[in-house]
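Okay, is this right?
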Amino acid sequence: MILITGASGQLGRQVIDLLLQSLPAEKIVAGVRTPDSVSDLKARGVQVRQMDYTQPESLDRALTGIQQLLLISSSEVGQRATQHHNVIDAAQKAGVTMLAYTSLLHADTSPLGLADEHRQTEAELKTSGLNWVLLRNGWYTENYLAGLPAALEHGTLIGCAGDGRIASATRHDYAAAAVTVLLEGAKHYHKTYELAGDTSYSLAEYADIIHQLTGKNVAYQNLSETDYRNTLISIGLPEHLAELLADSDTGASQGALFDGSQQLSQLTGRPTTSLESALRSALEKI
């Protein structure tokens, strides 16, 4: 059986949807803190097991009989290394055959503040005795699409990425890569994949594509990291999220969100979703 952690999240759900195209539902397990949040998956025949990264006893129960595990990294920055340790420990005790982990693009060298906890988890996996696979996911295109309504309203796209190239891909692209690894198994043991979009763009180019698709004048305004952070807070974002986004944009200016190896499309066997295509879909929902 294959267990997907964080199955109520946007990435986890897409992984399960894709797995259901290839496997019987009873071979798929959705691991979630609150089982009621995935009642629709249970109705489709997927097994649902309660598990909480902070409760080791729940992890032991959830991993009983599991051969393959997709550990989707926790969203609780600052607590993730400990939470991931708990899952790895439970996987060792359960005799899990393979653990695939969603890490960060170039985690070993990334300047992003997000990278440190990923490095800790990767290091633990490599000495765990488990058959591990590192899925180093790049930036989600959806991270920038979230600001699309505001950019259209004000005619300005703000950030602090400078001319940095961003090779983002959609959650669906990253989900497809995870599914490939889970279905193919042993051929991916002890491999590290740097996953990013086939093409890249600067935020100025992103603003220009918005203009091309909508006819509305949208220009990119590059701010300092501090000014960008403060602006995000002033419009209502939590301070920790504003700091994360500002740090990530600064990282982008240093090349942290770029990779040109096209390992993602090679892994899935299809091109990654283009920025233009993702934008068109997002505009249809506004």
